[in-house]
Design a protein that fits this description.
Helix content: 10-25%
Oligomer: single chain
Shape: elongated
Structural class: alpha/beta
Number of strands: 19
Number of helices: 6
Order of helices and strands: EHEEEHEEEEEHEHEEEEEEHEEEH
Length: 352
């Protein structure tokens, strides 16, 4: 497999897979050919989408697993798209015709780069379906489905003060449960943000958690990782911004998805590349073009919380733009859009 590609796609979700397929093959009627693409995925291809329901309307959804399975199968069987999982991009340098994408295990050269990462940073937690839930709904709904009993500790992972507000809402409805909020986007916990709600520091390692003798919400600015999943409950490693890591046992982990829509750090690897970012999101034109020539973007890193239809659509449109550029450069003419049209194109079609 070559380390130089026509297109490097960063992100292996629905948008990224669709972009890679379209960039090498053009419209869906054409088989992938003529060009080579590389898909770099931080976790597993389709990690987030394959474990959930992909909603099209309020009452209509389908399961993500079949979609990812079929897209992945087509990508891997194409013969011209390489896929590298567990390989996140850490830096992007260059411009059209001479990009370099750096990962922990190597550097790859490409003529164009497509950023299709999505904005949600914790796809690694999604497979823990027994004791972890990515939550989208307000506390009034989530409290009814919270699988906890009096005295249990429930961890909540989120961005900042909005996650504390979510935890406070849960506490009002489930006062028999204690909560541990881990906030990734703040340097310190706003302890007085919610009058009447007792907020304290995270418990020390090995400390028992009791709602009767501790603040009902303990909070820490930092991050966490799942160290072990049990039949009931989890062992988490909590890493504060200041202080030492500790292991915490909890009954359940909620990931506050909505808090990451306000600001994302998924694209931190693009800082210094010249690309324009807004709260971590990539700023693009209508065709997915960015402030860096040859670097395009599609999917939820451009239009947050837009759903699978937008992810697939923007991935297709950006991929088709890339394919058109590549085809013009290689063959000196526009690619055939519909092979059954007359040689003169649409203008010679009898219905035009």
């Amino acid at each position: 497999m070559t380390d130089r590609y026509d297109v490097i796609v960063i992100g292996g979700g629905p948008s990224g897979l669709m972009c890679a397929l379209t960039a090498v093959g053009g419209i869906p009627i054409n088989p992938p050919r003529n060009f080579r693409s590389l898909v770099l995925e931080r976790y597993r291809v389709g990690q987030f989408a394959r474990y959930g329901k992909l909603r099209l309307t309020h009452g209509w959804h389908f399961m993500g697993a079949p979609l990812i399975r079929d897209l992945e199968a087509e990508v891997r069987s194409s013969g011209c798209i390489d896929v590298r999982e567990q390989e996140p991009a850490v830096a992007v340098r260059g411009c059209r015709g001479s990009f370099e994408v750096e990962t922990p295990s190597g550097r790859y050269q490409g003529d164009s780069v497509a950023v299709c990462t999505g904005f949600f940073p914790h796809a690694d937690l999604v497979p823990h379906t027994r004791n972890v839930r990515v939550v989208f709904s307000p506390p009034e709904i989530e409290a009814r489905h919270l699988p906890a009993i009096p005295g249990d500790l429930v961890a909540i992972l989120g961005g900042g003060a909005e996650t504390l507000e979510f935890a406070a809402g849960l506490l009002k409805l489930r006062p028999e449960v204690s909560f541990l909020a881990v906030l990734e986007h703040v340097t310190e916990v706003p302890a007085d943000a919610f009058p009447g709600v007792s907020i304290g520091p995270a418990p020390a390692q090995g400390a028992a958690v009791s709602a009767a003798r501790t603040p009902a919400i303990r909070a820490v600015a930092g991050r966490l990782a799942v160290k072990e999943e049990h039949t009931v409950g989890l062992t988490l490693e909590v890493v504060p911004r200041t202080g030492s890591p500790s292991l915490q046992s909890c009954r359940f982990l909620l990931v506050d998805y909505n808090s990451y829509t306000l600001e994302t750090h998924v694209t931190d690897f693009l800082r210094g590349s010249g690309i324009e970012l807004r709260n971590g999101y990539v700023v693009t034109g209508r065709g997915g073009e960015t402030s860096v020539p040859g670097l395009v973007a599609a999917g939820n890193i451009v239009t947050p919380v837009s759903g699978v239809l937008t992810a697939l659509d923007t991935g297709f449109r950006v991929g088709l733009e890339l394919h058109t550029q590549l085809y013009r450069e290689k063959f000196g003419r526009d690619p055939p859009v519909f092979p059954w049209l007359p040689r003169g194109g649409m203008r010679q079609h009898p219905l035009a």
